[in-house]
Design goal:
heterotrimer; A alpha/beta; B mainly beta; C alpha/beta; A: 2 domains; 10-stranded mixed β-sheet; 13 helices; globular; disordered N terminus; B: mainly beta; Rieske Iron-sulfur Protein; 4-stranded antiparallel β-sheet; 48% strand
């Protein structure tokens, strides 16, 4: 079978991400979420008093908010949450250099397939292992330019004023139940500051993975792109497969100041027992551009809607989303653009693929506030269904309060055509491979926006997933 | 033309508290900041939820639904997700009774 | 005087169990039980708030004051057209050609006629109250059972408990009505709550068009009208339902509609909303047999502070069904429209074609439009798409027309008429197109 040869050539198989590395956590808080756990986390991180108070308040807010009734099925989540550890710290200190990184963790990266050369070249890698950054280095020239790429904990310690000025202002703890949870128990994540006028050519990359059974991961990232600066941040994650359900709830806050330009790329491939509930939001100032590129391939349920608040005149927001839902998976993703200032523009492009019993949902908001004169927004959603048991939903909210706005939304649903498959078969291409080709073509407009290595990995994943998808 | 509507005794809105009232068909939230009572529209400009379900923190009214904040004296929006102010109303206290001008 | 039951949402001095009993007093036992059951559902169901998706854009706390409403105590007017309100007669005169007429004034059916030849073929067109006596079994089978039962929600339950009269239209197998059935309604009592129902059963291979127009002057205090519309098309039947709402300001117009389309039937609807202060239409189209098709059309034109809320759904239950929805509106002044539509393709409904389009034209800086075109697709062999746009007048079209010598205002009117005309062109029923176009022209004359 030609397509199998191809996959073998690439050295991939279905169990690639299904491995477990033995590690000994140094400190692990008790199971479940309580005031005691929150106090322990804060004490362990030697945080200032205000942060402890913030966390405790957030815990109250979390407890006061009901479970969301929309989106994915969260009915068994409460039981899951009682069983998870909200904080695990694998090591006491941050590693200084690659040589100091424990072999076990290096092995993990090895298995993830990060090339040797890339590991060394990759500047400013904040790799998150378990609940915290354990490896962190920053290329020297960036440091000289005043770029900060720290763990979120170091951000709080080393840049307390900049941190406090922005932390929790873009996503208030009250925003939703899981933002409140994250605000109470956050641990790990990145703190990024790009100074005025600094332009980074190489993306900032943070690899991280969850590796402790029943451990929640509550990454918190705060990114500030100062006036006229440009940068690209990439977050990618894979997780080993476990039998009990797991949980990830991140909060990503981004400020893009006047004339700045920023792209945030996520490729999410959590194992298929993961609840992945993430709040991502950006505030985009005058003539600045924010781009979200969001790829959701893994997890049991993902609920994630990156958003752009276009608060400065001429601000531009862009959201590109790829979702793949295989058997038992539900990708409830999309994007939100809120036009607050005049002459703001935005676009959302979403491509989803549902296979087997998979379900992909696009949920989005396009809002034009009173005063946002001459706003323009365009939303396009395309869904591809592979099997008759697959499901797709589209829930766009369009709310327009200005008459000179120009807003359009289009969505379409289609299946892979028998004619396409027949044609490819007549060219000697086996069905599995033909499916993979069609799916690749379907997501190509977004995939081509990815850095090469991610695009290659995405294509490999699609080939793997399309194997055996036709009878 | 002022239109003063009596909305209840001061005892119902103690220091540091919020109180939702209706005055001539308008839903209003009263806020007692350091002994002075202020009134703004009881509807968050973000998703129209009642602000009176929220909390008064200093002189800020916090909408507990999504975390928007408003200045209780002016109705000014202080953070996202709210991007617009809410209406504020003049308040007077006479003989222990709160009056709001809804004109 | 029945006292409002404390803590029960929506139970008032007028709307309460005593009123339900009074209305059902001389009705058969099964109907009294149905009303009592509906009232139970009403009491148990909480009042919808903006926290419910379906009510996100209509805040009932602000828009509807049930406490202020009374039930109508008007006596039925006589079946003598000379005593009827002038505007009602004018509306009727605009399109005399019909297979039959019904006139409802303040909740009472005061006139019903049907073409004699059709009557001999078994066509029934009469007031629902009469139908309970004359065709009890048919009514009993269909009234608030399959289409709009009390369980639908708070307001469906309220209607099922308190309806006073309505329309029953039955078209026997194979009978085809060439001309539409025309219903004209008039409301006059400010501060009143009206509840009525429409039940249409079109048997296999039959054909009927039905036009229901409601009018009033402006009201000094809020006036509420609730209609439950049940449309059943059996195998191969063709049904067209048109509702034209031209109420005065102060009216809260609520219409809950469900269409049940069996194999190879075609069941089309058009909702035109021009008047009232608040319009809320819930329309659910169910495509139950292979080959069933529904075109769903909507048109609205708002000005001042008018509020429109359309909540539609297209349920593809059987395979090889199709539906096509087009709702278009123009909004002037500080008017506001919300459209929430959903296409549901149920598992197994292969070969579905379903489309949904909502387009809004904002004519003034104070107007507002919200649009939520949703899809839920659980079969893979489908063709589904939806689109929504919100924007202002097309400058190019305007400039083109002006270059042909039209004034700005003339050009704008033509563009708006062209924009809305697309909807009417899809269901060109005699009388309706002209009438609706005229009302829109009047509204446009006030614009700018």
């Amino acid at each position: 079978m030609p397509q199998n040869e191809t996959i073998q050539d690439l050295g991939l198989d279905e169990y690639k991400y299904d491995f477990v590395t033995e590690t000994e956590p140094v400190f692990r808080a008790e199971k479940g979420l309580s005031e005691e756990v929150v106090r322990q986390i804060s004490a362990h991180k030697e945080e200032p008093e205000w942060m402890l108070e913030y966390r405790l308040k957030a815990l109250d807010v979390y407890n006061s908010k009901p479970m969301p009734k929309w989106g994915g099925d969260l009915s068994s989540l409460e039981a899951v949450l009682d069983e998870i550890y909200f904080y695990v710290r694998p090591q006491d200190q941050m590693e200084r250099s690659w040589d100091d990184v424990p072999d076990e963790i290096k092995n993990t990266f090895e298995k993830l397939g990060i090339p040797e050369a890339e590991r060394k070249i990759l500047a400013g890698v904040g790799a998150q292992y378990e609940s915290e950054m354990v490896y962190h280095s920053l290329r020297e020239e960036w440091a000289a330019q005043g770029v900060i790429f720290d763990s979120i904990e170091d951000g709080l310690k080393n840049h307390p004023e900049l941190f406090r000025e922005h932390f929790g202002t873009i996503i208030p703890m009250h925003d939703n139940k899981f933002a409140a949870m994250n605000s109470a128990v956050w641990s790990g994540g990145s703190f990024v500051y790009i100074p005025k006028g600094v332009s980074l050519d190489t993306p900032l990359q943070a690899y991280f993975r969850v590796n402790q059974e029943r451990m929640g991961q509550f990454e918190r990232t705060l990114i500030i792109i100062d006036e006229g600066a440009q940068a690209h941040y990439i977050e990618g994650c894979t997780a080993p497969v476990y039998t009990t359900e797991s949980f990830h709830s991140g909060v990503i806050e981004i400020v893009v100041k006047k004339n700045a330009r920023f792209r945030y790329t996520t490729i999410q491939n959590w194992s298929n027992n993961m609840y992945n509930l993430v709040t991502q939001r950006s505030m985009v100032h005058e003539n600045a551009t924010m781009e979200w590129l969001d790829g959701n391939l893994g997890s049991k349920l993902t609920m994630k809607y990156p958003s752009c608040y276009l608060i400065g005149e001429g601000a531009h927001g862009e959201i590109m989303s790829i979702a793949y839902a295989g058997d038992g998976q539900h990708q409830d993703t999309g994007g939100k653009v809120v036009h607050v200032a005049p002459h703001t523009t935005s676009s959302i492009t979403s491509k989803s693929i549902s296979k087997g019993t998979g379900r992909s949902t696009y949920r989005g908001l396009c809002k034009v506030h009173k005063g946002a004169r001459h706003a323009r927004s365009n939303v396009e959603c395309d869904a591809l269904l592979i099997n008759d048991t697959s499901r797709t939903d589209t829930y766009p909210y369009i709310e327009i309060e200005e008459n000179d706005a120009s807003v359009g939304h289009e969505a379409s649903v289609s299946k892979i055509g028998e004619e396409q498959l027949f044609y490819l078969a007549s060219r000697g291409i086996a069905k599995d491979e033909a499916m993979a080709m069609i799916v690749r073509g379907f997501i190509e407009p977004i995939a081509k926006q990815l850095p090469l290595e991610y695009a290659v990995e995405l294509n490999r994943l699609i080939e793997m997933e399309m194997e055996g998808s036709v009878g | 033309m002022a239109s003063w509507i009596e909305v209840g005794p001061t005892s119902e809105c103690p220091v540091g508290e919020l109180k939702g009232v209706t005055a001539d068909g308008s839903e209003i939230v009263l806020a007692n900041f350091e002994g002075t009572i202020y009134a703004i529209a009881d509807e968050c400009s973000h998703e129209e939820f009642p602000l009176s379900d929220g909390e008064l923190e200093g002189d800020e009214i916090l909408c507990i639904y999504h975390g928007a904040r408003f200045d209780c004296k002016t109705g000014k929006n202080l953070c996202i997700p709210a991007t617009r102010p809410v209406k504020s109303f003049p308040v007077e206290v006479r003989a222990g009774q709160i009056y709001v001008d809804v004109s | 005087m029945a006292k409002a039951v404390a803590g029960m949402e929506g139970v008032t001095s007028a709307l309460n169990p005593a009123a339900v009993e009074r209305i059902g007093m001389s009705e058969p036992e099964w109907l009294r039980e149905r009303r009592a059951h509906a009232w139970d559902v009403y009491e148990r169901t909480p009042m919808p708030t903006i926290r419910l998706e379906e009510w996100r854009y209509t805040n009932l706390k602000k828009k509807l004051d049930l406490n202020s409403l009374q039930l109508s105590d008007a006596e039925a007017m006589s079946d003598d057209a000379s005593t009827w309100p002038e505007r009602l007669r004018a509306a009727m005169d605009e399109d005399r050609e019909a297979s039959g007429h019904i006139v409802i004034i303040d909740g009472h059916v005061v006139h019903a006629d049907v073409d004699k030849q059709l009557a001999t073929q078994g066509v029934i067109l009469e007031s629902l109250q009469e139908a309970i006596t004359n065709h009890e079994e048919l009514v009993r089978e269909h009234l608030a059972t399959d289409a709009v039962p009390a369980e639908e929600g708070k307001f469906a339950a309220l209607n099922a408990a308190l309806w006073s009269d309505g329309i029953f239209l039955y078209v026997p197998k194979g009978v085809q009505l060439e001309l539409p059935v025309r219903v004209t309604r008039w409301l006059s009592e400010a501060g009143t709550a009206y509840f009525s129902r429409v039940l249409i059963v079109a048997e296999a291979q039959s054909q009927v068009s039905y036009v229901d127009e409601v009018l009033s002057d402006d009201f000094e205090s809020q006036t509420y009208t609730s209609t439950a519309v049940e449309l059943i098309a059996r195998e191969g039947a063709r049904v067209q339902y048109v509702a034209v709402q031209r109420l005065g300001r102060g009216a809260f117009y609520q219409s809950m509609q469900r269409t049940l389309a069996q194999r190879d039937s075609k069941l089309d609807t058009l909702n035109v909303a021009l008047g009232a202060s608040v319009t809320r239409v819930d329309l659910n189209a169910r495509l139950l047999g292979p080959g069933a098709n529904s075109d769903m059309l909507g048109l609205y034109f708002g000005d001042d502070d008018q509020h429109f809320d359309f909540n539609t759904s297209q349920d593809h239950v059987a395979e090889h069904t199709s539906s096509d929805l087009l709702y278009k509106g123009a909004l002037d002044g500080a008017s506001r429209a919300a459209f929430r539509g959903i296409i549901r393709v149920l598992p197994g409904a292969q070969g579905t074609d379903a489309y949904q389009t909502n387009r809004n034209l904002l004519l003034s800086p104070e107007s507002r439009a919200d649009s939520l075109p949703n899809l839920e697709i659980e079969a893979d062999d489908v063709k589904c798409s939806h689109g929504a746009t919100v924007g202002q007048l097309d400058d190019e079209a305007k400039f083109y027309l002006m270059s042909r010598g039209l004034s700005l205002i003339q050009a704008e009117r033509l563009v708006v008429l062209g924009f809305l005309g697309e909807v009417l062109a899809k269901l060109p029923l005699g009388g309706v197109v002209d009438k609706v176009t005229r009302v829109i022209e009047q509204k446009l004359a006030q614009h700018g």
